Amino acid sequence: QVQLVESGGGLVQAGGSLRLSCTVSKRTFISYNMGWFRQAPGKEREFVAAFRWSAGNTYYADSVKGRFTISRDNTKNAVYLQMNSLKPEDTAVYYCAARLGGGPQMRSEYEYSYWGQGTQVTVSS
Questions:
Q1: Which residues make Cβ contacts (< 8 Å) with residue 48, sequence separation at least 6?
Q2: I need a labelling partner for 93 at 20 to 30 A (CA). Which of 9, 20, 101, 118 fits?
Q3: How many CB atoms lie within 10 A of CB 116?
Q4: Would you state the pLDDT for residue 4?
Q5: pLDDT of residue 49
Q6: DSSP 54-98
Q7: Predicted local distance difference test score (pLDDT) of residue 102
Q8: Beta bridge partners of 100
Q9: Which of 39, 54, 40, 17 is nearest to 97 (CA)?
Q10: Who's near 75: CB < 8 A, 6+ residues apart?
Q11: Res 29: pLDDT
């Protein structure tokens, strides 16, 4: 089994920054492509960012381009989401996700097999 644990969420004012972390229990972390999704109350889960390691590609939702950056540290089995210039509409539970393989549908939640429990991000006006 692959276990993912998110951390780094919290309450910030608009314009502030947070860095989310996701640690992966599996030794084969290098073989997994990683993504970040979020879900606001009453809304469907939506794609935020993804890292296609084998191809060196990153993917971002239009709503976060230029503000969020996804990265990973293979020595720590961790993936990060640096969030800058946060807006109230960024308020959501953020989930780390993993998939084995790197097909083209990196933005689809249905391509990911493993999920963390989520970490709350709240941005006040």
A1: 35, 36, 37, 38, 60, 61, 64, 68, 81, 94
A2: 101
A3: 21
A4: 93
A5: 98
A6: GGTEEEE-TTTTTTEEEEEETTTTEEEEEE-S--GGG-EEEEEEE
A7: 67
A8: 32
A9: 39
A10: none
A11: 67
- Predicted pLDDT at 7: 96
For tokens 């060196």, the residue is: 56
Interatomic CA distance for residues 42 and 11, integer angstroms: 20
Cα 78 to Cα 85: distance, rounded to the nearest angstrom:
23
Residue 106 to residue 50: CA distance in whole angstroms: 7
Q: Which two tokens stand for residue 76?
A: 């720590």
DSSP assignment string, 10-58: EEEETT--EEEEEEE--GGGGGEEEEEEEE-TTS--EEEEEEEGGGTEE
Q: Strands 18-24, 78-83: parallel, antiparallel or unpaired by DSSP?
A: antiparallel
